[in-house]
Write a structure and sequence with these properties.
Layout lengths: L2 H20 L3 E2 L1 H7 L7 H13 L3 E2 L11 H12 L9 H12 L3 H20 L8 H15 L9 H51 L5 H8 L3 H10 L10
Length: about 250
Amino acid sequence: MGENQEILFAKTLEKVKKQAKEQQNCISQEQVREAFADLALSKEQLDLVFDYLKKQKIGIGEPVDLDEYLSQEETDYLEEYKKGILYTPSISDGEREAFFLSAMAGERQAQQEVIALYLPQVAEVAKLYTGQGVFLEDLIGEGNLALTMGVTMLGALESATEAEGMLMKMVMDAMEDCIAENLQETDKDKKVAERVNQVAGKAKELAGELHRKVSARELAAETGMSVEEIEDAMRMSGYTIEDLER
């Protein structure tokens, strides 16, 4: 693939994943083929796309059993979470629409009814995002917060269907943002650890030559790092770099 094709491929893949999530995490082979039609992929390349989607917990033609992807800890938590939910009895489509229309009109009781209706759904959506570095409990917490805020923001919409779609989008966006923030934090922590290890290694090397602890200024002169960088690393380590003077 050329560079432009690679960019188009990546964008198309994200579009397919989004479409699948909007369809209860399922997509048909025909929809995938139509999405990639402009790229004229070979059968082998399409097979790789299908394999990738399956690894992303996306069902091809029929939904996957998301419970199979949960750890025992997550399964146990989910069971306890469901026990704590006050399940709403089965309601008709007409009753569901009435709840949404009343919630859109700002009726507090109707908003609470919508929240109760969707608490179990938030847990199901959270299953889509497990295995990406965030605990299921945290994903559900973020989803429930978005749900609680979302029911108060439906007034400008025109239909119950539109309101329902917006509400679930807010839940999914909240979980995706949580994962993105966690990845950024993890990357930051990794860079901090690398800096601390670098300073500790250089300090140990210089201390070995001088047979004593070294100062930040001495280490800076020897390594080319600034005194501020070395002192920052010392602070980030909790002042545990043994060969560096405080």
